[in-house]
Every structure is written in C-alpha cells, then in structure tokens.
Amino acid sequence: MTGSRHTTVGIIGAGPAGLLLARLLHRSGIDCVVLEHRDRAYAERRQRAGILEQGTVDVLRACGAGERMDREGLVHDGIELRFDRRAHRLDLSALTGGRRVTVYAQTEIVKDLIALQLRSGPPLLFGAQALAVTDADTHTPRIRYAHKGRQHTLTCDYVIGCDGFHGITRSAVPEHARRTYERRYPYSWLGVLAHVPPSSDELVYAHSARGFALFSMRTPTISRLYLQVPNGTDPADWPDDRIWDELEARAALDGAPDRKPARGPLTAKAVLPMRSSVTEPMRYGRILLAGDAAHIVPPTGAKGLNLAVADVTVLARALAHLHHTGSTDLLDAYSATCLRRVWRAEHFSYVMTTTLHTAPDQSPFETRLQISQLDRIAASRHAAAELAENYAGLPLD
To answer: Looking at the annotation, which residues are catalytic?
Structure first.
C-alpha cells in the first residue's frame, strides 16, 4: 500500500542538522517533514563530539533549544597546547573579543531538539527509510520512503539532505553534477570514555613523538580521551592500562610530575578514521545538501557539528527570505555562501591535524617544523589569535 502527501521542505535525517533546520523553519512559519530511518532510541544515543562554537550556542539559544545546554554545558575560555614537554594556554576569550566554546555533547543536543520537535514542531517520523529522491530538476522533487510497512511518496518544494556522506540524498545528485575533494590521513583516533573527572579544566591538545593525544570531557565526572593510533587498529589490542600509560606519556611535562591524568574505568572504546571531504556544489536543482552530506572534517579542529549548524542556519534564512519575499536570491547563493566557510574550516582542521599528529613516515626535520609552528603560536599574539578565531568559530553573519 502507498500514501502520498506534500510539504514545502522535506528533510532527510534527524541528526542535529536536520532537527535544527526543522526547528528554524517552524519558527519562520514554513512547513516541513523530517524523515529518520532509525528509531528514536538510536538517534538519541549516537555518540559524537560536542565542542560548540559561540555561534552554535547562540543559534541553539535563539531557537529555544538552549535551556539544558546553559544549565549543564561546560563553558571554556581557553585550551591548552602541550608540546616539547611544555604547556601553553591559549586564551580564546581574550584573543577573540569574548567568544568562547561550550562542551555539550551532540547526543544531548539531539535529545533537546527531538523533545521540542515532538512537542510543538512539524512532523518527525522515526523508522522512515528514504528509498529514493527523484525529480530534483523539477518544481516538485519527490522522496519515496517506507514507514510502518507501507511505502509513501512525499512531494516537496525542496529536499534537504542531512543524512550524511553515505546517505541517499547525496547519491541522488548525478555524478556529472558534483565533484568531491577528499584527503585521507595515515592515522586514526582511539576514543574512550572514562568514568573519572577531567584531569584539566580545559581541553588539552598534546603533541609528542609518540603521537597525538586529546584530553576532553563529557561532564564534570566523565572524561573523553583520544589517542592517535595506526589505521586499522583494533580497540581490543588496547587494554585499559596501556591506554592510560600512553595518555600519561604523551602529555608529560618537564618539571610537573604531578600533572598526570587521573585514572579510572573505561566504559567505551572506538577507533575513528580521519579524513577530509567536500562535495561541490551543495545544491542541485531543488536538492540541497547540509552537514556531513556535503563535507567531513577531521575532528582535531572540532568543526563538524559547527559546520552543520552554520549550513542549516544559512539555509533557514534563505528559505525564510523566499517565504516572506518570494525572492530566491539567498537560496541561489546557498552553496557559494556555505562553501566559503567550509573551506576555511577544512583548512583550519587540516593545519591542526598535520601540526599535532606524527605521520608514520615523519622525518626529524618535519617534527622540528611542527615544534616551530607551535612555538610561534605560543610566542605571537597574531598567530595565537588566528588559531583562536578559527577554533572559537567565525561569526555566522
């Protein structure tokens, strides 16, 4: 059996990008439908990074999704760089005119947005698998999807793909109409959750000859920790003691033997590949891509979620402009507007990644260049401000 309906905007994917877009459209009086092929429980437990730029925090507050974030999020004014067995604090707030970052897990953002959507927003269908997107070059693109044992057709004025790199929306754009730029890195991250308070009040990015390490947090009592490991690493090869020993070795400081990470039980381990990807353009006919469907960054710069928020903020403004004025000017500029920010974030993430990680074939000369660059950041306000402005996030306007 089949059914059909029409909506102004069909959104595929109920991650933070799709959910936030639906929220912004709803507040502008634009009807939409969100299709998510997983169930609600799965959507609310997907573990992702959670370093929020100032602009992301502002958007979540403005759309009514900031109450719990403001109560539980951990606001940071700086980060710490460790290299050559030395530590240097980067004061983000002082270097950017007051912009800061907030640690608040993507999982929690999704929970907040789902609760808002189900309470007072447009339709959100879990277990709705998008099967095909067709007629992109017409005025009524169609989404064919399966839900509760039936097939349905959703006709739309616009289809927005928030369903990731391997999602159906990106593949619905003909190959001749898109180009993807990619880079794969010769290392991965081993990420762990530790039931132990963070060893530092702010994030610590550690460069060492043994490889990179990142000390982050999920809550005041749960740490999120990462180690650079070879591609293809099996987490089972890393028992708890080995992980703690390596974290301690990579973050070691001369003259500060007491600044060691506190140890505790590890409750989750996963290996994350590192790659960069940009698909251009981010629009084909009436199909538009947002978030991971259009671009992926290595997690070193904490840009993935923030880029997705920037995409849908630009897109929501463009659709609201069309709705209220009839003009497609902002919508026609969507891809070019977003790609300027995307490539800036890609470059920043690339520089952070290649400066802090040790490549498998890295020479001593290249290591000295990395130390020189980190020394420059520590010694020069201009170099520090460049890093801080990109890390805390460029303004959305």
So the answer is: 76, 205, 299, 303, 391
Nearest to 22 by CA among 277, 218, 312: 312
Q: What is the pLDDT along the chain (397 residues), one digit of tens a residue?
A: 467 899 999 999 999 999 999 999 999 999 999 999 999 999 898 767 689 999 999 999 999 999 999 999 999 999 999 999 999 999 999 999 999 999 999 999 999 999 999 998 889 999 999 999 999 989 999 999 999 999 999 999 999 999 999 999 999 999 999 999 999 999 999 999 999 999 899 999 999 999 999 999 999 999 999 999 999 999 999 999 999 999 999 999 998 777 788 899 999 999 999 999 999 999 999 999 999 999 999 999 999 999 999 999 999 999 999 999 999 999 999 999 999 999 999 999 999 999 999 999 999 999 999 999 999 999 999 999 999 999 999 887 7
Laid out side by side, the sheet with 51-52 consists of 51-52, 101-103, 74-76
The answer to whether the predicted template modeling score (pTM) of the entire model surpasses 0.85 is yes
> Which of 29, 43, 281, 8 lies closest to 143, judged by CA?
8
